[in-house]
Amino acid sequence: MITVNPRAEVLKPSLVEAYRGVAPATLGHLLQTGMDAGIQALWRPVKLVGPALTVRSYGETDGTRPHALEVARPGDVLVINRGGDLRHANWGEFATVQAMEAGVAGVVTDGV
Predict the structure, then answer these.
(1) How far is CA 11 from CA 8, 17, 34, 50, in A?
(2) Is residue 59 pLDDT above 80, yes or no?
(3) What is the tens place of the pLDDT at every residue in 24-56?
(4) What is the pLDDT, as a whole number, of residue 109?
Protein backbone atom coordinates (compact mmCIF):
# COMPACT_ATOMS: atom_id res chain seq x y z
CA MET A 1 0.00 0.00 0.00
CA ILE A 2 1.22 3.48 -0.85
CA THR A 3 0.21 6.57 1.07
CA VAL A 4 0.96 10.05 -0.20
CA ASN A 5 -0.15 12.37 2.58
CA PRO A 6 -2.12 15.54 1.79
CA ARG A 7 -0.20 18.73 1.27
CA ALA A 8 0.18 21.03 4.23
CA GLU A 9 -0.70 24.54 3.07
CA VAL A 10 0.52 26.22 6.25
CA LEU A 11 4.15 26.99 5.36
CA LYS A 12 4.96 30.46 4.16
CA PRO A 13 7.85 30.72 1.68
CA SER A 14 9.59 33.12 4.07
CA LEU A 15 9.61 30.44 6.78
CA VAL A 16 11.09 27.84 4.44
CA GLU A 17 13.75 30.36 3.37
CA ALA A 18 14.58 31.14 7.02
CA TYR A 19 15.49 27.48 7.59
CA ARG A 20 18.30 27.70 5.03
CA GLY A 21 20.42 29.37 7.70
CA VAL A 22 19.80 26.76 10.42
CA ALA A 23 22.23 23.88 10.89
CA PRO A 24 20.50 20.46 10.90
CA ALA A 25 22.04 19.55 14.27
CA THR A 26 20.68 22.73 15.82
CA LEU A 27 17.21 21.98 14.49
CA GLY A 28 17.41 18.42 15.82
CA HIS A 29 18.33 19.67 19.29
CA LEU A 30 15.54 22.24 19.31
CA LEU A 31 12.94 19.69 18.26
CA GLN A 32 14.49 16.96 20.45
CA THR A 33 14.35 14.61 17.50
CA GLY A 34 16.59 13.58 14.68
CA MET A 35 16.99 11.47 11.62
CA ASP A 36 18.28 7.92 11.47
CA ALA A 37 22.07 8.16 11.34
CA GLY A 38 22.08 5.63 8.50
CA ILE A 39 20.41 8.14 6.17
CA GLN A 40 23.26 10.01 4.49
CA ALA A 41 23.62 12.39 1.56
CA LEU A 42 24.81 10.73 -1.64
CA TRP A 43 27.16 13.65 -2.26
CA ARG A 44 28.42 16.56 -0.21
CA PRO A 45 28.10 19.37 0.49
CA VAL A 46 24.32 19.49 0.24
CA LYS A 47 21.69 21.57 1.98
CA LEU A 48 18.11 20.53 1.32
CA VAL A 49 15.31 22.85 2.42
CA GLY A 50 11.65 22.86 1.41
CA PRO A 51 8.18 21.75 2.41
CA ALA A 52 8.12 18.00 3.06
CA LEU A 53 5.76 15.82 1.07
CA THR A 54 5.64 12.59 3.07
CA VAL A 55 5.15 9.24 1.40
CA ARG A 56 4.81 5.74 2.90
CA SER A 57 5.53 2.70 0.76
CA TYR A 58 6.22 -0.95 1.50
CA GLY A 59 8.29 -3.82 0.18
CA GLU A 60 8.24 -4.41 -3.53
CA THR A 61 5.82 -1.55 -4.21
CA ASP A 62 7.03 0.41 -7.23
CA GLY A 63 4.26 3.02 -7.45
CA THR A 64 5.79 5.54 -5.06
CA ARG A 65 7.23 7.88 -7.67
CA PRO A 66 4.17 8.45 -9.89
CA HIS A 67 1.82 9.01 -6.97
CA ALA A 68 4.19 11.36 -5.18
CA LEU A 69 5.00 13.36 -8.32
CA GLU A 70 1.28 13.85 -9.02
CA VAL A 71 1.01 15.72 -5.71
CA ALA A 72 4.47 17.36 -5.56
CA ARG A 73 4.99 21.01 -6.34
CA PRO A 74 8.21 22.75 -7.32
CA GLY A 75 10.45 23.15 -4.27
CA ASP A 76 8.97 20.20 -2.35
CA VAL A 77 11.19 17.66 -0.60
CA LEU A 78 9.91 14.09 -0.92
CA VAL A 79 10.36 12.19 2.35
CA ILE A 80 9.79 8.49 1.67
CA ASN A 81 9.34 5.92 4.43
CA ARG A 82 9.93 2.39 3.14
CA GLY A 83 8.75 0.71 6.33
CA GLY A 84 12.16 -0.84 6.96
CA ASP A 85 12.56 -2.50 3.54
CA LEU A 86 16.26 -2.45 2.69
CA ARG A 87 16.12 -5.00 -0.12
CA HIS A 88 14.25 -3.26 -2.94
CA ALA A 89 15.34 0.07 -4.37
CA ASN A 90 12.61 2.67 -4.38
CA TRP A 91 14.45 5.44 -6.21
CA GLY A 92 16.86 5.59 -9.11
CA GLU A 93 17.92 7.45 -12.23
CA PHE A 94 14.51 7.64 -13.94
CA ALA A 95 12.80 8.72 -10.73
CA THR A 96 15.43 11.40 -10.24
CA VAL A 97 14.99 12.78 -13.76
CA GLN A 98 11.20 12.89 -13.36
CA ALA A 99 11.53 14.60 -9.97
CA MET A 100 13.93 17.17 -11.42
CA GLU A 101 11.52 17.86 -14.28
CA ALA A 102 8.74 18.38 -11.69
CA GLY A 103 10.96 20.85 -9.79
CA VAL A 104 11.30 18.69 -6.68
CA ALA A 105 14.08 20.07 -4.47
CA GLY A 106 15.25 16.65 -3.28
CA VAL A 107 14.41 13.27 -1.83
CA VAL A 108 15.04 11.76 1.60
CA THR A 109 14.38 8.05 1.93
CA ASP A 110 15.16 5.25 4.33
CA GLY A 111 15.24 2.81 1.43
CA VAL A 112 18.04 1.69 -0.84
Answers:
(1) 7, 10, 21, 9
(2) no
(3) 667 666 666 666 667 777 777 888 888 888 888
(4) 86
Please give the helix or strand (H or E) that residue 80 lies within, else none.
strand 77-81
Alpha helices in the chain (DSSP H): 13-18, 24-31, 64-71, 93-101
For residue 76, the 8-state DSSP code is: -
- The residue type at 23: A
Residue 25: how many CB atoms within 10 A of its CB? Answer: 9
Amino acid 7 reads R
Asked whether residue 6 carries a pLDDT value surpassing 80, the answer given is no
C-alpha 106/C-alpha 99 separation (Å) is 8
